[in-house]
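ok trying this again, last paste got cut off
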Amino acid sequence: MKLRERLHRLLERRERAHDPDGIYFYVRCGQCGQRLQIRASRRFDLMRDLERGGYMLRKEMMDGTCFSLMYATIRFDDAYRVVSREIEGGEFITEEEFRRQVG
């Protein structure tokens, strides 16, 4: 692993440790393949899901390459664990898949 890549990962972990309200997920645009890291705030972005319990996130995302919109709906339980997720215009990817582009 390159020194620059190690430093980048270390700094990012430190940022996340200081971001207890952040929920991160990763997507790839269905049009151009651009990969994005998305941050949602537990305080401001999540809505209480009164029908099913837990929380729900609806997020619009746009990449900086082809400017296509993607729409995600993610449901969480009361402990903020993902219960279900759907996306239009793209696909969910893992953090490792996202890192392959960035690294």
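PB: full thing came through this time. The CA atoms of residues 6 and 23 lie 22 Å apart.
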